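User: Please predict structures.

Assistant: First:
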Amino acid sequence: RGWFDDDGSCPFWDSVASKFFRLAFDQADLMSASTDGQFILDLAPRHPIYVELLPKAACDAIAQVHREGEAARAMLEAEGFRYQGLVDIF
């Protein structure tokens, strides 16, 4: 799970992803978990997003892990997973 501020907002979702999905994060996340994910392929941008053009809060949230996901990230990294410069839109 990506970064959320203390107030529950998700800067990257609010600034970028919500423009493509037109759903609140929780709704899109539920759809992603309960379907085959085709709607993600249908709605997600097809081209890279220029990070330099995003608001600072959205940039700062990129590749940051939600506080509750830090243990999962550590486990994945212990298994050899590494950040490669690509970020899931969720």
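Second:
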Amino acid sequence: MNPIVSAVALSAAHTFTKPVTTSIRLLAGLGIEGDAHLGVTVKHRSRVRADPTKPNLRQVHLIHGELHDELQAAGFNVDAGSMGENITTRGIDLLGLPRGARLRIGADAIVEITGLRNPCSQLDKYQKGLTAAVLGRHPDGSLMRRAGVMAIVVAGGTARAGDAIRVDLPAPPHLPLEPV
């Protein structure tokens, strides 16, 4: 399957889930127009409390729809936007991308992957056991975070369900994703 956007979502308020919409407008250097996390500096409330001057490396949250499938099979009620993501994808291994990989979405938008979403207690507030369900262990025993990736907007544009995604990898060496 060629990588595609399967859904887009945004919320003007700091809500855990984001309602799915027909399209979102990505703004270079800022994030998603109308979303609570839009901005040059951090907008996630815990990060604002720690240091409001830090750059916003979490402008866009992406989750692979295949994770939703896996979680639904395990009995969780999750779907596009329900875990706070702005863009749900299909056919792309988001977690396997290196830091700095760029995703060309639709005709114009480009986002650059900055790191992993660090699963938080809000997942369990949404549905008991969800935090543990998106964590795992790598073969070496290290913690595996599977709740999606975070990105910044490099080039603005509109994204909607059905848009193609093209992946541009950075020059080697490829750096693994870490929580941001």
